[in-house]
Specification:
This protein is of the alpha/beta class and about 220 residues long. The protein contains seven helices and six strands. It has a single domain (about 25-215), classed as Aminopeptidase (3-Layer(aba) Sandwich), CATH 3.40.630.40. The protein has helices spanning about 1-15, 50-70, 90-95, 130-150, 160-165, 185-190, 195-215; strands at about 30-35, 75-80, 100-110, 120-125, 155-160, 170-180. Strand 1, helix 2 (about 50-70) and strand 2 (about 75-80) form a beta-alpha-beta unit. Helix 2 (about 50-70) crosses helix 7 (about 195-215) and helix 4 (about 130-150) crosses helix 7. It is globular. Bound molecules: zinc ion (ZN). Zinc ion (ZN) binds near residues 35, 36, 42, 51 and 107.
Length: about 220
Amino acid sequence: MAVPIRFILLLCLLVRSTCFAQDGRVLPVVVLDPGHGGRDTGATGANGALEKNIGLLVAHEIVRLNRELYDHALEIYLTRNTDTLVSLYDRARLARVLDADGLVSLHCNHANRQEAKGIEVFVPKGKSKHTGRAKRIAELFANNLQQDLGYWNRGLKGANFQVLRETREHCWSVLIELGFLSNRKEAEHIVKEAATTSIALVILDTLIAYLNERNCK
Ligand SMILES: [Zn+2]
């Protein structure tokens, strides 16, 4: 694992200096982090769906929509492109090395109580100069996923997750739990292609609106 990651980081350093749109605009840089991967499957759904696959599918769909619908409005990098396990340290490091505007980690929830449902968005615990931005975009993700797709909004929470903690001082970072795989209805919904596309579109629209509104870091 170490060699490919180093290679990706080197490649990113080279590419990062050329993040310009054709009209000369500097493009916002966002790192998408599909949770888990490889032998770490994450949560397993009531229908057998694996969290590691859902995060990767949503991330790939965001990349596709950014290319085909928005003609590369954002410069997007993934912490992993395939079903492989990348360390939490390297995931956070990618955002730092790229000097990214932000990082979005994509996960699914799991609970013993099968009725538990909805979207949860986490921001890093503890203050930094990016705390306000993290809370703002987290709130937009939660509200838009609720309003546009009908998800129950469980609100924002602070967490000490490594990927958030190790990016906290460098950029805004959030972790989105895209529903509960332990809830049969949500698990069956999220494996549908239309659900992947609609979730990806809401996340991408939210990122573009927020980053264009700010137009800088
Ligand atoms: Zn997870």
